[in-house]
Amino acid sequence: MRSLWKTLGSGPLRDIALVCLAVGVIGVSYGAVATTSGFAWWFPVLMGALVLAASSEFLFIGIVAAGGSPIAALLAGLLVNARHLPFGLAVPDVLGRGWRGLLGTHLMNDETVVFALSQEGMHRKRAAYWACGLGILACWPAGAALGALLGTVVRDTGALGLDAMFPAVILALILPAMKERAVRRTALAGAALALAVTAFVPVGLPVLIALAALPLCTVRSREGAVR
Predict the structure, then answer these.
(1) What is the distance between the alpha carbons of residues 185 and 180, in angstroms, rounded to a whole number?
(2) Residue 174, domain member (yes or no)
(3) By the number of CB atoms within 10 A of the CB, which of 1, 77, 117, 155 ranks highest?
(4) How many other CB atoms are found less than 10 A from the CB of residue 94?
(5) Helices 10-36, 122-151: crossing angle, 10 deg rounding
(6) CA nearest 54: which of 89, 71, 29?
(7) DSSP, residue by residue, 43-109
(8) Are residues 93 and 193 in the same domain?
(9) What do you get for the CA distance between the two ends of the chain, in Å?
C-alpha cells in the first residue's frame, strides 16, 4: 500500500477507491437481481470472480431469466466483451508477460484501462491498472455475495436505486476532462449515439456504438495543433 501511495499519490488512489466502491454497490444489485430471478446464491458470486465483466453478466442473467437459451446468453455476453480486444491493444505493455500477463488480462475492464491510460509513465500506468483491477476483483464478487443475501429478503431490488451510483461516480470523475472542447463534443456525440440505440440493442452494445464518436476527438485535436 505504501508503494502504491508513493507511486500514484492520494488523488488517483482516491478515485480508484471510489470506483471500486461503486462497483461493489452495483455488485449488490447484480447479486440481488440474480437471486430474485431464480439463480442459486453462489452463481453470481462465482461468475463475478471468473468473468469479472458487469455488462455481460447482467446480460446473461437477464436473457436466461427471460427464458432465453444459455448459449444465446453466452454469445451475447461474448459480443459485449468484444470491446476488450481494442483494450488489449491499448495496454499491452501494462499487462506484462507470463502468469502476470494472464492475471492482468483477467483484470482488464473499462475502469482499469481508463485509469492506466490516464497516468504518465509506465510505472504509474501499471500501478493504477493493478490497483484498480485488484480492487474490482475484491469488490465485485463481494458485492454480489451481499446482494445474493439481500435478494432473499428484498424482492423489489429496483426500488433501492443501486444502479444509479456507478454512473454517478463515473460522471464525477470525467467532469474535469469535459473542460476541453474536443473532449466535450466527443463525449456528447457518443452519449447521443448510445441513447439513440439503447431501446434497440442488447445491454452493453450502446457503449460500443458510442465509440464511433472517437474520431471527432482526433479531428478536433489535429485542428487545434494546426492552428
Answers:
(1) 9
(2) no
(3) 77
(4) 22
(5) 30
(6) 29
(7) HHHHHHHHT--HHHHHHHHHHHHTT--HHHHHHHHHHHGGGHHHHHHHSHHHH-SHHHHHHHHHT-S
(8) no
(9) 44
Please check whether residue 167 is in contact with residue 48, taking contact to mean a CB–CB distance below 8 angstroms: no
SS3 of the chain: helix, strand, coil, percent, to 5: 85, 0, 15
**Predicted confidence (pLDDT) per residue in 13-29, tens digit:** 888 998 899 889 888 88
The Cα–Cα gap between 183 and 189 comes to 10
pLDDT (0 to 100) of residue 47: 93
List of the chain residues with pLDDT < 50: 220-227
139 belongs to a structural domain: yes
Contact status, residue 26 vs residue 165, Cβ threshold 8 Å: yes
| Residue 64 belongs to a domain | yes
> In terms of domains, do 51 and 117 share one?
yes
CA distance 152 to 130: 34
Question: Are 148 and 48 in contact, with CB atoms under 8 Å apart?
Answer: no
Rounded Cα–Cα distance for residues 37 and 49 (Å): 20
Query: What 8-state DSSP symbol labels residue 200?
Result: T
Q: Give the domain extent around 51.
A: 2-169
Domain co-membership, 100 together with 44: yes
What's the pTM value of the predicted model, to 2 decimals? 0.71
Question: 153 and 211 share a domain?
Answer: no
Place of cell 472517437: 214
CB 15 within 8 A of CB 116: no
Question: Helix (H, G, I), strand (E, B), or coil: what is residue 118?
Answer: coil
C-alpha–C-alpha distance, residues 44 and 29, integer Å = 11
- CA–CA gap between residue 152 and residue 58 (Å, rounded): 18
